[in-house]
């Protein structure tokens, strides 16, 4: 898990550019629409929608954008459907890659993901070929506003899995169904700003590469994230 925070920090810095932020918001809006479709749009009665909204807030997505995505889903016609697809494979140097997509055209998405992997030295694998290397967890990252003991007390009291002090921040890991409760426990203790807060896939172990090798892998990851149908790219590179 040690590589997750470092990668997340780099990913967040990249997202500071306005154009990139807009693209991130667009992808999250699609996730919100999928989670809200066929419901009344109330996150309190829809845990999946609530999780995506937490992700949107973690990425500083404006409230108006979130509500517009929910409203669009509630009023959506049945002839427009996004389908969830996951592709698994490898980047150069044996780095495991999971690519989660939301698409209205599976053939287009498959072609784009496959060609991007191939052009940049990766290869597409079969279902389950790398997903076993990751675990779905809630990830909450906060600044060093409290001592480690204080953070541990809050986390243990809320039934979190683990707390990591990476010298720049604290990272709290939770089971997905405990994520909301753990986050609320920190909010109740005066922590209302989060560097990251979402349910995501965390690698069981990470692989370290030299700078040149790392740059090649990150080039592939960036290219995958540029595909409109790609919502999330997970990997086990330690950056």
Shape: globular
Q: What is the CATH topology assignment of the domain at 2-74?
A: Arc Repressor Mutant, subunit A
**Helix/strand-derived class?**
alpha+beta
**Which whole number gives the mean pLDDT?**
88
**What is the CATH first-level class name of the domain at 2-74?**
Mainly Alpha
Strand content bin = 15-25%
* CATH architectural designation of the domain at 2-74: Orthogonal Bundle
Counting DSSP E segments of at least 2 residues, the number of strands comes to: 10
Q: Over all CA atoms, what is the radius of gyration? A: 18 Å
Find the CATH superfamily of the domain at 2-74: Integrase, N-terminal zinc-binding domain
Low-confidence stretches: none
List SSEs in N-to-C order: HHHHEEHEEHEEHEEHEE
Biggest sheet strand order reads 3-1-2-9
The DSSP helix count reads 8
- How far apart the termini lie comes to 11 Å
Characterize the biggest β-sheet.
4 strands, antiparallel
Helix content: 40-55%
Would you mind describing this structure in some detail?
The chain is built from eight helices and ten strands. By secondary structure, it is of the alpha+beta class. The strands form three sheets. Strands 3-1-2-9 form a four-stranded antiparallel β-sheet. Strands 5-6-4-7 form a four-stranded antiparallel β-sheet, sandwiched between helices. α2 runs antiparallel to α3 and α2 packs parallel to α4. The radius of gyration is 18 Å and the shape is globular. The protein starts with a helix and ends with a strand.
